[in-house]
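User: Batch of two.

Assistant: Item 1 of 2:
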Amino acid sequence: MYILKNKSALSLAIALAFSTYSHANNNEIEEVTVVAKPTSYANNVIEPAMLEQQSSVSSVLSVIDNLPGISINEGDAFGGDDWSTTITMRGFSIDGNQQQLGMTIDGIPNGGSNYGGGAKANRYLDSENLATVEVGQGTSDIASASLEALGGTFNFVSKDPSLDKSTTFAYTNGDHDATRYYIKHETGTIFDNTQAYVSYSQTDTSRWVGDGSNGGKDNQHAEAKFVSNFDAVTVTGRLSYDDVSETNYNSVSLEQFAQTPDWDQLTWNWTGTPHFDQMFAEGWGTLRENTLGYLKFEYAISPSSLLTISPYYHKNSGRGDWIPPYLTSPVDDEGNPTTEGGSNAGSYGFADSDGNPLAPDANCTESLSWPWASGPGLNPACYDDSATPVMSYRHTHYNKNRLGLTADYSVTFGMHDIEAGIWYEQSERDESRDWHKVIDARVYHHFDSTPYWTQYKNTFDTDTFKWYIQDSVAFGDFTLNLGAKQYLVELQKYDHFNDITSDKINSDSDVLFSAGALYQLSSSTELFTSYSENFAAIKDGVLERDSSALTDIEPETAENIDFGVRYQADRLSLTATAYSIEFENRITFIAPGSDTSGIDYTIGTNGSYINVGGIESQGFELSASYMLTNEWNIYTSYTNNSSEYASDDPSSYANGELIADAGPSFRAGDDVIDAPSDMFVLSMDYYSGDFRFGVSAKYTGERLGAWTDEQTRARSEVDGYTVIDFNAGYYAEVNAGAFTSIDIAFAVTNVTDKQYLSGGTGNGSTYFIGAPRTAALTFTANF
């Protein structure tokens, strides 16, 4: 079986055989190896030490944070909240408003990384089952199946089953009530040609902010995988299931952080005053259930050619919760009360004993000031004592079903390595929003399970087809890559309440070209350069907004250029890359006007998406690994990035002048919001016998936020910060009774308990608070 013709298998072999160091059960460093694959574009793979720097409770996203160009920020050290997760690379972002980086699991598309119906890699993989992560910075792998790969791709690779039969049990206990149980059974070789495993984990944590009823994470996760070899055919199957309930973290302003740097403004004591209790942490929830399964058929047609076909299915369901401090009065187009569709004719915060809406005393002008101005309508002091406070529990329901297939064919003849393939997917996503009455807001947020208003219900269909072809031509020490790809994407929306099906919207790309060159300068040094045209289709979320002028919206595109060098000697390996990116047709959401500075819970399908110009980025990335001795290894990376807006914000400026009633925003040449110009990582790891430990430090430079004054063009600024992590562990072969070995691992993130602001929300006004010092201890037994 010629499995090394398979791109994923080859990548994994390189990552494992040539990672910076590898250690056997005695934890001795055996060799220094490369930090990237020999390709014509910038890329990195994680090192084994990066896995050990994180607790097993942490999400798999956190392991790539030390790679050059990348910043991973999650609400807590355990990745306990998707709402507050942000990922940036070379000025591109994944956050609540932007999805500009591609993500795959074993080459299978993740279905998008957005909050509403998407799922990042942590929904599909436990950390114990992660083999490596392949990162293509900027110029992504031409075969990557993603509609979001403007600025690069992440491919999370799961471990293959072991040849040996074994069972592993692990228990983790950590700060913030963190507990985790993990069990995995490896079948070893069965039926003479098959290896398989099945695993299950249960993870529970509390939010680090506050105590008591401060919410947290409850996560059940299961995985199964098998690999069967039949002469020239290898069949791989994998199934993952994830069921999680998360309480969100809230973003805060710079002023709020300066006042209380350890509080995200959410509360954990029920007061009975809805204006305060809308910030009750347990009312801010994310519930998600994800099932992803695939089969991969690898057929070695000849010693020089391989065909790979991978059908897959993904089901995503769940909801997002909020607790608005009022009840709405929904009406249809004729002004009659309704329970489905329509609009809100008005909201009220207090009712009489019969449930009839009450208005505040006409002479009362008092207002509660926190979390924002309530006005008289939500202030209990503006009502008599007989008035009863009311509030809602708002659910947004998400459901998505994806059925797809990837097919790749690679062949070598003469000096040509040719690769071609397709990706096809049908996706159906349902989204609806309903409002439930809180039974008694004076007591708690228990709500009536029957909604009093279903605000909207829509179905979005997306058909995706991609083709690609690439030829790598070898001329001795020089290799030339030429490639082309194209995306054909079709979207359609069905409005259930109005029984309207939209016209089909084409979000096709042009034929996108790529080219690269790799030159082996010496046995230890190679030079590379590449150019690629990347693309992100219009998301179906754009169709959610009735005011979006779809005929005026163009898909997002990016042109990426890399120049770099890789060096590998006996003890030292390094990569240096300079890059230039032109990002065009950036799409952003323009919210409708609001009379309150608080959350607009009734926004529904209002607002619109528009193209707001482009971004130009330049920078360079360095990464190096050096083995000082047989026990000590040093890893470092440095990133310098400059990202600027290429045009004025069209929602704020017309012909260079500020639009009336518009606030200051970006102008051509301004630095991009929340894009640090410098990031620096230094880590040291020690292995001796059965003992290991490591220390890692990462510096993230200051970032610029929103504009505070149009005349001076002043902007808010977020301070830079350094976070230091520590890990230690001990492995021992015991061979006592049923046990064969044990391992104890201890990890501490943010050792100095640094207070800082981490990921932003994309608007430059609010940020999530960085997680405090967090420790976790894991005991693992193998038998």
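Item 2 of 2:
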Amino acid sequence: MRILKPFLIVICLTVCNFGYSQKVYTEKDIQIIPKPTQLLINTGVFEFSADTKFVATTDFQKEISNALINKFEKAAGFRPQLSVSVPQSNFIQFRVDQNLEKEAYILAVNSKNITITAKGNAGFIYALESIRQLLPVVIESNIVLPNQKWQIPNVAINDKPRFQWRGLMLDLSRHFFDKNYVIETIDRLAMHKMNVLHLHLVDDQGWRIQIKKYPKLTEVGAWRVDQENLAWNARLTTNPDEKGTYGGFLTQEELKEIVKYAAAKNIEIIPEIEMPAHVSSAIASYPELACFDQRIGVPSGGLWPITDIYCAGKETTFEFLQNVIDEVITIFPSRYIHIGGDEATKTNWEKCPHCQKRMKDNGLKNTHELQSYFVKRMEKYINSKGKKIIGWDEILEGGLAPDATVMSWRGTQGGIEAAKQGHDVIMTPESPCYFNFYQGPQNEEPVAFDAYNPLNEVYKFDPVVPGMTPEEAKHVLGAQANLWAEHLPGPKDSEYMIFPRLAALSEVLWSTKESRNWNDFTPRLISLLQRYNYLGINYAKSAYLVTTSSTADLTKKQINVTLKNEFPNPDIRYVLGDKNIEHNPIKYTSPIGFTATTILKASLFQDDKPVGKTFTDTIIFHKAFAHKVKYLTPFNQNYKGDANTMVNTIRGSKNFHDGQWQAWLVNDMELVIDLEKQESIQEISVGTLESQGAGVNYPTQIKVLVSKDGLTYKEVGKITRPYAPNVNSELKDFKISFEKTNARFVKVIACNLKKSPKGESSWLFVDEVLVN
């Protein structure tokens, strides 16, 4: 037998052990979001252990090192140490290079050490966040996980953000969120390499910042009458003499703590102090701020139009706002103060003698120019304090303040116009940057604002609008997501709307446009969602949901159902009837045709397993399918469906703009279905929607009458129900059963609520009348 020389044995063992213990990394293994600018994978790995040293020479380097060290202690059971001297190997070192851009970093990993090079603290933070995402997802665990290799690939990363403004706005006014949730959000922004947190501290429904000179702002303005049992836009006008009990505010000390914590994460806190509108909470506290000293209560819910606004004619208004700003700037060292400036209904200004005098004295032609005067005057004062203003794009009306930055929310046109005028712009168009919009099918989602911004649309967004000149594009600072909180009573509700859409936006704002690719992003997202699981983030799984669209072929009496999903080339599988989705599902390739009542179940599959919630629907064929309908009361032309909406078996969703609903405003629904021959029938179901916030209410009564000749009808059933408050959006089939009877004609009368308790006209929505 041939004997190997000792040194060959050593080499052989080394190679074998190397192959056994070290994973060979490929580009698919790099799961960093947002995607780095440049990345090169080299052979080998760096492995963290209890002997690993973080070489930190400043207090800040020690602080950010400890954040990662603490994660190792919790998940790995060992604690790497801080060091001021550089060992021979197994260390992480920070180096300063003043030639790099502020937030850029260079990450060099080899088997002996890791070097992070940056201009300063921002780059060091982002490099450590990249290391965190190179580590196994279980680094986020709060319990020790044995038998885990804590290694990362040897890589060279050269990275920097595309845009300087990468933000999120939290609305603390519509529902109050405390200091702890704001701090949690800051951690998560840093994880996604975002650098701005815009706090919406003032609005009609609550004043959330302590102002010591004006204590009533938080004694009165921070609290509203509790009507949380009603839908947001169905809430009643508040009596100013009724004490509010629902709300809260942040003290100046709490806000200073938040600002300090954010600064350590390279996050700038931008306060928003609304003016001249969205200030009912201030006027409820100090009525003299309004044109006519009117006493109002803090609104408990939706308010439109917004007519109770600051008086632009009284000097005391500006004295008040200047005093407020003086206290705000002692809390927030930010470059900017956001002053709102949106949605001011100026009808009171048109009648107010103080405002009319101001317009005459200053040669102002209309109230738009008066608002411009208001904004410019406040900008001048804020500039005198060394700050710049940001306003929503309405501040363009009547002439833009000289040094103002525009936050463009009504699409991108306001931002384009401001950039043309040489002003800086932050793009935040409703579509796709409003995260209070639905992100999945409404039937499967919690109540949100009635519009749609799914994950893939967020990823498609680009702040630089096609057609902008290079000079105009330079004025685009970046973009941000806005999360308005009308429908978000708690932190978990807020998280659900933010994540994972924030991950998509982070890549939009950090990564180069050329490197962004939806097919590349989605596999990396799966890894990030696993991190969310360990971190306890209540993220939305909406992107996994299977959605459908249906068409009716009335000639063939067939329904064709199309299945789809947000992910590229989705592996969708389905079963029919009562079968389990995991038992021999059929791969979806083309629309499915149905000619009889059938249960459909479908799911997205990954690795041959269903992921996300299984879609389940019952396609119901009934005796009225494809027959003629005669409307005795016409439906509203804004919601008219099509000629066969009531009898096409295709059901409407909670999205009442989906084309499957017919609606009546104030009027009752009265229609007749001609079955074309006598049928034996015993039950009628009327499919309805209730969304009280949108003014849509269930019927108060439904009557069914039948006839053999279309002339003489007899009543066979009736149900009556009283109005009941309902905070949710819901679908309901009202069933009227009766003894079997032969009839050709079926008349259905559904009674409209007419007027809501708020005094507004009521809608009645119906999607199908099922006859059995």
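Residues 367-384 form the longest helix (18 residues).
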